[in-house]
Amino acid sequence: METIQATTYPIHFNEKAYSELAVLIEQNAYSSIFILVDDNTFECCYPRFIQNLETKTQIEVIQIDPGEVHKNIETCVGVWNVMTELGADRKSLLITLGGGVITDLGGFVASTFKRGIDFVNIPTTLLSIVDASVGGKTGIDLGVLKNQIGVFANPQMVLIDPEYLHTLSAREIRSGTAEIIKYGMTHDIYLFNEIKDNPEVNIIDLIHKSIAIKNEVVTEDPKEKGLRKVLNWGHTMGHGVESYFLENPNKEALTHGEAIAIGMVCEAFISAKTQGFPTKKLEEIKDAIIAIYGKVTIENSDIEHIMNLLKHDKKNEAGVVKFVLLKDYEDFVINAEASEQIIEESLNFYRQ
Fold it and tell me: For the 3-dehydroquinate synthase N-terminal domain, which residue ranges apply (predicted)?
């Protein structure tokens, strides 16, 4: 896979990525290297990574608990304290080795420690490979409200090694696939069709095209003033559902991709109601999503709570919920609005 050049950093693939990382470390003469992992990536991914890391610079590993529930300021404080105790300075490098929680939180930790040190993202889940690690968004959750605190900060490099995907469960692969489906519906229908029509598709073959789409959008609109909002397709409704399932002790937490998949069904319904999105394609989306992800039980009593969480979505403006909606595949509208009634109907459409 060829290197993709983002605005200020390269995205390298496979073996070339490790050699380029070695060059980066040598050229910048870092005083120390900190590698941020969680329990899972330390066990499953760190051995492969450290085998491929060529450097004589001092290395320290910082290990945190896995999961979205730990993507918060308390975890950041713990990491900042450990870095301070171990003598990190402005010439230190932080390498994030993990999924979206690690790359989001690690980037935020690095970009705020001593007003900012260099960091490198090495995503190890499909979700973080095709989405979280690229684009310069860093951040943490505020309670159950996702990504409420953060900054835009670019890494020095993103290193993509698809071998890490072999450590993932089928559920985690499906989670990341939702973001590829998103790119397909908004930018290149080939991606959606490949996943929808071919259950045996090799998802690795779709990675490069997915990253290229995201990079193209982010390069044009790095601070999400306009076009970049298209990357939120499925995410307004999806984040509401994800947050509700995260905070409700009677619900099993959803993966990010599972929630976004529900969000795409709901937002396709809203698109059909408000933008003329074809009903036949709405049914196609619903059938494909349920075939891939199964059906999540959303009770009628859940809807009010999900609606309340939508009001806190970070994309809202003046208290109005904002959506990315589709007129057709590859034809989207940003900053679209919908009535509360239609939003509720979209959840009922999914439930039916």
Answer: 62-174
pTM attached to this predicted model: 0.91
180 and 141 within one domain: no
The reply to whether 179 and 256 lie within a common domain is yes
Whether residues 148 and 220 share a domain: the answer is no
HSE-CB of 184 using CA atoms within 13 angstroms: 20
Number of domains in the chain: 2
- Tens-digit pLDDT profile for the chain (352 aa)? 899 999 999 999 999 999 999 999 999 999 999 999 999 999 999 999 999 999 999 999 999 999 989 999 999 999 999 999 999 999 999 999 999 999 999 999 999 999 999 999 999 999 999 998 789 999 999 998 888 999 999 999 999 999 999 999 999 999 999 999 999 999 999 999 999 999 889 999 999 999 999 999 999 999 888 999 999 999 999 999 999 998 899 999 999 999 999 999 999 999 999 999 999 999 999 999 999 999 999 999 999 999 999 987 766 776 788 999 999 999 999 999 999 999 999 999 999 8
How far is Cα 306 from Cα 319, in angstroms, rounded to an integer? Answer: 16
Which domain, by its residues, includes 293? 170-351
Helix 170-186 × helix 207-220 angle, to 10°: 50
Q: Are residues 148 and 177 in the same domain?
A: no
Tell me, yes or no, whether 159 and 178 share the same domain: no
